[in-house]
């Protein structure tokens, strides 16, 4: 019938242009997070070409959907590069590098998009809000910053990482100071254990609201440890 012929023609045209994105999306799977940004420009050009040339796939809804799908693919790759077991076990230097690389990778995708859209303002271009299609990117960047803060907390409070040694204190109150340092370390590790919990994979699930609740409790506990550290420093100077 006529509708079948029309649908087949539409599917053929869609496939013809969507194949432009096939190779870049395959590359996202194979490249490391620090190399993924090298293909961002070609991805943007591909989506722009689909917008301009594809007869059936050039609606703003579909184009926004393409950007969201690419963003999800990048998030998935970044997520796979972050070893949560290593992070919560205290191997912080390697984890901080992975988190920094993921943050940079995600920010560069948004930067390439914004730069190109600004150049296209005088020409025909889509008019949807970029904040909507990058909402998940921004959420995952914030999750990476949260995890980086946890790593830094392990260095500060639990003396994790390379070259982390107990400082030397003399004087009559040295034993008290060492006791407080151990108390801070134990307290931090207990709170970290609560945060990681039994379902560690939820940590990278940006759709989970549970993380925010648990992380806020963790942050509140860290403020208490900060106060303990201030008291310890005062005692040490005395």
Helix content: over 70%
Averaged pLDDT: 87
| Main sheet specs | none
Which outline best applies? elongated
Number of helices: 10
- Count every beta strand, where a strand is a DSSP E run of 2 or more residues: 0
Note the gap between the termini. 91 Å
Kindly estimate the percentage of residues that lie in beta strands according to DSSP.
under 5%
Structural class: mainly alpha
Order of helices and strands: HHHHHHHHHH
What is the rounded Rg? 24 Å
Poorly predicted runs: none
What structural keywords apply?
mainly alpha, single chain, 238 residues
Describe this protein's structure.
The chain is mainly α and 238 residues long. The protein is 74% helix and 0% strand. The chain is built from ten helices and no strands. Helix 4 runs antiparallel to helix 6. The longest helix is centred in the middle third of the chain and has 28 residues. It is elongated and about 90 Å long. The N and C termini lie far apart (91 Å).
Q: What secondary-structure arrangement, pairings included, does this model have?
A:
Blueprint: H1 2-18, H2 22-30, H3 40-53, H4 60-81, H5 84-89, H6 92-119, H7 130-133, H8 135-158, H9 174-196, H10 210-237
Helix pairs in contact: 4-6, 6-8, 8-9, 9-10
